[in-house]
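Researcher: I'd like a candidate sequence for this fold, 156 residues long. If you have to choose between options at a position, lean toward the conservative one.
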């Protein structure tokens, strides 16, 4: 009744939120899902693009727990704790009363329509426009400049 999504980024060492098509597939198929082996706040990023979370049934607090979301924690203790937390959450979801899953029907349908009817595409376009606005704005006078050896056309 739900999907497990194992993302491509297995470390949060670069401190950025990252999503791939793996997170989009269950939305397209109409499945609630749990993101594993990804970056922190990936589920929050999906909501920023207009998708609704599965919080009524799937506790989304895991999204801000670095030891839960990554697959290569810093220590053996973190690895064991991460695996135990994920296994417990998966077991609890697998045992959930089917009536509880029906609480997500409207959310699943909203997400699927948002994906298929262009809402997600429009949100991505707006996000890209915002990024382009920021990177095309002139740098303030006090902003750090590239070293002279980077003054090649490829770096401009």
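Model: Candidate sequence:
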């Amino acid at each position: 009744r739900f999907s497990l999504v194992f993302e491509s980024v297995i470390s949060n060492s670069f401190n950025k939120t990252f999503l791939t098509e793996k997170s989009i597939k269950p939305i397209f198929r109409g499945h609630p899902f749990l993101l594993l082996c990804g970056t922190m706040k990936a589920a929050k990023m999906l909501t920023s693009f207009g998708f609704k979370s599965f919080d009524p049934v799937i506790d989304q607090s895991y999204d801000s727990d670095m030891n839960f979301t990554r697959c290569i924690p810093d220590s053996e203790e973190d690895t064991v704790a991460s695996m135990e937390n994920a296994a417990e959450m998966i077991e609890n979801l697998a045992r959930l009363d089917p009536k509880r899953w029906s609480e997500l029907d409207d959310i699943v349908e909203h997400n699927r329509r948002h994906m298929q009817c262009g809402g997600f595409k429009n949100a991505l376009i707006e996000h890209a426009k915002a990024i382009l606005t920021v990177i095309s704005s002139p740098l303030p006078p006090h902003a750090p400049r590239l070293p002279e050896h980077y003054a090649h056309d490829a770096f401009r």
